[in-house]
Design goal:
With about 260 residues, the chain is of the alpha/beta class. It has nine helices and seven strands; from the N terminus they run ααββαβααβαβαββαα. It has one domain. It has a seven-stranded mixed sheet with strand order 1-7-6-2-5-3-4, with helices on both faces. GO terms for molecular function: 1-acylglycerol-3-phosphate O-acyltransferase activity.
C-alpha cells in the first residue's frame, strides 16, 4: 500500500483539500505572471490553458496517489488533440471540470458567472479564455471565438449539477446553436460516479466515502448540424437521450462493481 494511503481517511481527505487549495494558489500565481508579461490575445490564452492543464494534472495526480480519487479517463486520450470541437457533458460534481481539464489541454469551459467573477480561480479562467455563462446571446460570441482559436468548447447543458443518484435533467439548447453557427462537431462526454461529493447540495467540507470513483466514457460523436431548426432539435434530443440512459440505476451499479 502506498505511504499516503496508509494514513487514515479523514486525515487524507482534509489534507487533500489543503493541497488542492495550494495548487489553485500556484495556478493563479502563474496566470498572474502571464498577465503581467504578455499582452492579451490568443497566445496568452493558449499559454494559460496549458498552465491550467498542467496544474489540474498535478492536483488529480495527487488525489489518485492519496487514495482520494479513482478516475478512469483513458477514453479522453482519443479526443485530446481534436480541435474546433464542442464537448457536451453531464454534470454530477464540481470536480468534473478539474478532471476534464487535466486530460484536455485545449479545453475552454462555459462557466457560471459566480465562478468566473471570483478573485481566486476566476482570474485564471478569464486569462485562459473561459466563457462566462450569462444569456445564450451573450455566450455565443465568446464561445465562437474559442472555436475559431481551435479550442474544444465544453458545456454542461443541464445548466447545473445533478443530485447524487438523480436522473439527468432537461438540457439547454445553447450547445446546438453554437455548433450550428460554427459548423463544429459535437462530442458527448459521459461522466459516471457513485460519489455524492460536491453534487448539488453536498457541503465542501463533508467527507464522502473514499475513494471517489469516476469513469469517463465517450458517447456519440455528432457531425456538425445544419443550420435549420429541425437539425438543431434532433441534436438536442439525441444528447438528452444519451444523458438519461447513462443516469439509469443499472449504470451506477456497473460503476460500483468495477
Amino acid at each position: 500500500m502506498p505511504l499516503l494511503q496508509s494514513i487514515s481517511a479523514p486525515v487524507r481527505f482534509y489534507t487533500s483539500l489543503l493541497v488542492t487549495g495550494g495548487v489553485f494558489a500556484a495556478l493563479d500565481a502563474g496566470t498572474c505572471v502571464l498577465r503581467l508579461s504578455m499582452p492579451e490575445g490568443p497566445r496568452r490564452r493558449r499559454m494559460a490553458r496549458r498552465w491550467l492543464c498542467t496544474m489540474a494534472r498535478l492536483a488529480v495526480g495527487y488525489l489518485h496517489r492519496a487514495g482520494i480519487l479513482d478516475c478512469d479517463m483513458a477514453a479522453l486520450t482519443t479526443i485530446a488533440q481534436r480541435r474546433n470541437l464542442v464537448l457536451v457533458a453531464n454534470h454530477p460534481s464540481r470536480l468534473d471540470c478539474l478532471i476534464l481539464a487535466s486530460a484536455l489541454p485545449h479545453m475552454v469551459c462555459v462557466t457560471k458567472a459566480s465562478i468566473w467573477e471570483r478573485g481566486v480561480l476566476g482570474s485564471t479562467l478569464r486569462t485562459a479564455g473561459y466563457v462566462r455563462h450569462d444569456s445564450l446571446l451573450k455566450i455565443i460570441g465568446p464561445a465562437s471565438q474559442s472555436l475559431r482559436e481551435d479550442c474544444q468548447l465544453l458545456l454542461f447543458p443541464e445548466g447545473t449539477r445533478s443530485r447524487a443518484g438523480a436522473q439527468a435533467g432537461p438540457i439547454q439548447p445553447g450547445f446546438a446553436a453554437i455548433a450550428q453557427r460554427m459548423r463544429a462537431d459535437v462530442q458527448v462526454v459521459l461522466i459516471e460516479t457513485q460519489s455524492p461529493y460536491l453534487s448539488q447540495g453536498w457541503p465542501f467540507l463533508r467527507r464522502p466515502p473514499l475513494p471517489m470513483r469516476y469513469r469517463i466514457t465517450l458517447g456519440p460523436d455528432f457531425c456538425a448540424p445544419s443550420r435549420d431548426e429541425a437539425s438543431g432539435r434532433a441534436l438536442i434530443d439525441a444528447v438528452e437521450r444519451c444523458f438519461q440512459k447513462k443516469s439509469s440505476p443499472q449504470d451506477g451499479e456497473d460503476l460500483k462493481n468495477t
